[in-house]
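Record 1 of the preview.
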Amino acid sequence: MTYYFLQCFVVFILACFMSDFVEECQVVAKRCFEQSCNSGFWDEDRNDGEAIALMHSELSEALEALRRGNPPSEHIPEFSAVEEEFADCIIRMMDLSYGRNWRIFEALEAKMNYNASRIHKHGKQF
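->
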């Protein structure tokens, strides 16, 4: 009963705040896309597979940062190296999704609502 109440509460909170979240993320995604265009990354049509590989490379860099003890970022030292690499990955995701007009923020909202209704650890061990 308590777990069900918690699930309902999470769905309610998500419904209340996700609309503003989606709109605000779209503004940031547009900024990522515009910066990418200004840097020449959209001079020609992007290769989606290559763009996804670059996202993966940012996550690999985050893993390497953890292996080095997660030192301060070399470019933005007020943040850790992992924080910077995660930001790089998100920037790449926002850039591509905005450029392709993919509705990832709406999909994020739908997926979070769906996941809130799932059983503990989605029925798996890990």
